Amino acid sequence: MPWCWRRCAALDLPAIPFHNPCKAAWRGALARSFHNWTSGHEPFAARTAGPAGGRVTRAPDHVPPLALRLHVGVTGHRAGNPAYAANAPAIEAALGAIFDLLHLAVAALPLPPAAAREATRLYTLLVDGADQAAARAAARLGWELVAPLPFGRVLNTAINAAPRDPADARAILAGSCAHDPAVAARAAAIEAAAAGAQLFELAERDDQIAGLFLAALEAPDDALAARRFAAEAAHRAALAGKVLIEQCDVLLAVWDGVSTAEPGGAGWTVASALDKGAPVIWIDPAAPGDWRVIESREALGTRHEPRAGDGAGAAQVAKLVGRALLPEEDAATAAAQVALALQFQRSAWRPRSSRFAHAYRRVEALFGGGGRPWRSLVQRYEEPARIASGSARSLAALLAALPGADARFYEAVREVALRNLARADGISARLSGAYRGGMTINFILSAFAIVGGVLYLPLGMADAKWAFALFEFALLSLIIAITLMGQKRGWHARWFQTRRVAEYFRHSPLMLLIGAARAPGLWPRATKGSWPEWYVRQSLRAIGLPRTRVTGDYLRTALAGLVETHIVPQRDYHRAKAGRLHRVHHNLDRVSEAMFAAAVLSVLTYLVLAGADRAGALPAGWLEGQAKLFTVLGVMFPTFGAAIAGIRYFGDFERFAAISQVTAEKLTGIESRAARLLDAPTAALSY
To answer: What are phi and psi of 67, to 5 degrees?
Structure first.
């Protein structure tokens, strides 16, 4: 079989009814390559060798379906608060009524068929009073209960059981029952709530705080000991409250409205949530049925917001749920953004870059140094299903090696965060190649079109000028076709959108394992295309907090992994990128300047020769014969110089180099801070 037929068979091309089969195959291959370059959302099926050299097609490697769930946080007064104690049944009824409204609003929200509707999650610190009342109401509706605890579970129970006798405190810490029936009852209630919750225990300072706790109990008249313990306990409650705020879409607060100054208290948590853009449903314990929705700190003192008694409660709750679970408030816009997010999930993931989209990267290879400028630039994108055993192998090992590692959490990070990272990274890289490669080709084609249109002059082919005009027209038409194709397929917008998705997911695993997240109001808002932030936020919220006990060893392992798997590789990447782009920028400048200098030199040479011709120093008619060549040179040099300058301007290499340089410097600073922490004793590490 001739080599061309073997090549046709290897391409697996469909039959095309051209006269010459090989020519038809190659035309089909070129058409397919151009189509692959310009496409971004066509289905892709990876092929692997089958039995006897055959081909087996398998389905695309999709990420898990998008899971949408509401996340509700609760803060409030303890059962011993006078206002709470006076109206406890009414407060519990108000909490139950609001939960019912939230539950109905979630059920009624029109979600896309491809998205899974998951049970609402309730976040609470499990303190007696409002927290435990909310936990009971959530259990009635089948909600998941998650508790970010300011201490380890045992110490949390001992402190919140509020013993007055050091012996009772020591008994609870030892796993026994307190002698005081009231203390034992409070401890049992906390333990019962914790048994049904997913716990995220901030336990790395339990030994020190337990010592302060016992010291304050053993010396009830020692004001200094009491203040020390109270300050540490408030600080820990504030840390847990920060985790709660970052995880929730809406905060329910049972609060008297008196003060926001006490760290970790209900008022402080309300103010912090509002500062971070989380709306608050405020229940005043003095009038629990007259709750209201607050969305700014300034609104705390006005009390002009519509109240539940005004008949606006259900509508307000439905609005909050819609804003939490949909990307836009306007229904039509939200539907369009959701469609784009689902399109990303279904879009084509291809295993490598297209050679037809390498023009921009070829410029980097030619002008960035590093040797072998004509080397292959084909990029092979990591298959999403293999990222955990590939580029993210060290991160996967870190997640598995964490003390008390949560298998469910690890699986969710691998399946959701890492797969989405690989998928978005590959799609974005192809779109980047299509857009930037197309623009680079346009600059080059424009220069060739101009020069090709006048090249008939020095060649003495005036009779065939139509052919040169046709060549110019063909190149200009190709420029228009590439431009229209890029606009129609949205290469630029989709490249930036999918790049945002990739970078959010790139940083997410190391934030997730320590319970850190962006609060609702801290997510960037794009003027066009809000789906990337919505998609990532919903995906990361679905993963949630790990079920773990954060200890000093946990923090040390996480910090060392942060440095090894993220900070150092990202710093080295940005350092290399900054140097490469800086060289590209200056080398393009030099070539462009050389082109303009050549243009000036060619015109100056012609003027000198024209003067010599007038002086009779040149053979008669010689300059007239060379004039057309100088005309083409006078056009060619500035045209190509302008095209190269245009590529430099379009590529914005200098600005991107500066961005990478600043990023590398900031990462170096973070690395040095992390190194100091890692040099410290484990007991000195705090959340």
So the answer is: -105, 120
Q: Could you tell me the CA-to-CA distances from 401 to 96, 152, 410, 553 in Å, in that order? A: 41, 20, 10, 11
In this structure, what token pair is assigned to residue 590?
A: 């030099």
- Residue with structure tokens 């100056």? 604
Task: Please report where in the chains the tokens 């998008």 appear, as a residue.
Answer: 66
What average pLDDT does this structure show over 485-505?
Answer: 94
What contacts 24+ positions apart, CB below 8 Å, involve 268-275?
268/238, 268/241, 269/75, 269/241, 269/244, 269/245, 270/75, 270/294, 270/300, 271/297, 271/300, 272/241, 272/242, 272/245, 273/73, 273/245, 273/248, 273/519, 274/299, 274/300
Closest to 33 measured CA to CA, from 13, 49, 15, 48: 13
Query: Distance between CA atoms of 294 and 312, rounded to whole angstroms?
Result: 13
Structure tokens that stand for 395 in this block: 């991160």
Tokens of 347: 């879009």
Identify the sign of the CA torsion 643, 647, 649, 650.
positive
**97, 270, 316, 330, 356 from 306: Cα distances, Å:** 17, 18, 9, 21, 59
Is the separation of the CB atoms in 291 and 98 below 8 Å?
Answer: yes
pTM value is 0.85
Q: How far apart, in whole angstroms, are the C-alpha atoms of residue 580 and residue 587?
A: 11
Which residue type, as a one-letter code, is found at position 419? Answer: R
- Mean pLDDT across the chain, nearest whole number? 87
Place of tokens 């600043």: 662
Strand partners, 55: 49
C-alpha span between 536 and 416 (Å, rounded)? 10
At 64, is the pLDDT very low, low, confident or very high (cuts 50, 70, 90)?
A: confident
Q: Which helix (H) or strand (E) holds 280?
A: strand 280-283
Helices (H) and strands (E) in the chain, counts: 25, 12
* Alpha carbon distance 121, 145 (integer Å): 6
Label residue 451 left, alpha or beta by phi (over 0 means left) and psi (-120 to 50 means alpha).
alpha
